[in-house]
Amino acid sequence: MTGGAQRRAGVPQAKGSTPMVRDAVTMDDAKKAAGVHAAGYVVDGMRVGLGTGSTVHHTIVALGDRRPDITCTATSLRTHELATSLGLVVVSPDEIGHLDITIDGADEVDGELNLTKGGGGAHTREKIVAAMSDRFVIVVDESKIVDRLGPFGTPLEVLEFAPGVVATAVQALGATSVSVRDERSDNGNLLCDAHFPAIDDPVSLAAALSGIPGIVEHGIFPGAMVERVIVAGADGTVSERTH
Question: Does residue 35 carry a pLDDT above 90?
Answer without folding.
Answer: yes
